[in-house]
Amino acid sequence: MTSVKKGRYEARMASSPQDIEAAQMLRARCFALDVTRDADAFDAHCAHIMVEDTASGALVCTFRMQELTGADVSASYAAQYYELSALEDFEGSMVEMGRFCIDPDLRDPDILRVAWAAMTAYVDDHDVQLLFGCSSFAGTETATYLDAFAMLKARHLAPKRWLPRVKAPDVFRFAARLRRKPDLKKAMAHMPPLLRTYLLMGGWVSDHAVVDRQMNTLHVFTGVEIGAIPAARKRLLRALA
Description:
The protein is an alpha+beta fold and 241 residues long. It contains 7 helices and 12 strands. The longest helix has 17 residues, at 109-125.
């Protein structure tokens, strides 16, 4: 992936152990973890994307990408929490996008635009056919997010042929439990920004959320089939890239 630049921000691939350490430190701060660095065994198998402020050199956003095929989808981070055997039949290259975070002190929308431009460039360069990951809601209480989950049930559940099954011991089976009609305004107000973007790209989610007390989040498995992204959205993403 070549570097991607917009305004004062530039995205590039991590190229040294020092880069990856900086990404891990930002992750720990964004996820409010009681550690200096958020590091795990998956880092060694991923490409790490860094969005930096070109004026100050500060790292403002990071995420990682791991290339997989159906045969090794069980080696993904998400497979710790979701039973993904249905995706073993997926034909084409897959990439798991994870640990996405933006400096919590910053609100500049160009940061997210540059991040998505970098993701688009990576997907195009590697001929990726499925982008997936875990989309997180802050906290582990479901009450605030019931309209958001009701909307996911009504409009955005995964196709049955790819639907992840329950694996984690603590889950919220929103598709089975919720009977409410979603208030769309409330649903979108409480939908995580990253998940909103996935949904605009035609993304789909699991029928349950995992309660992850270690990370203090609720998360849903999220997939985006690249071939199903609306043409207008593809043009917009590639214009950014």
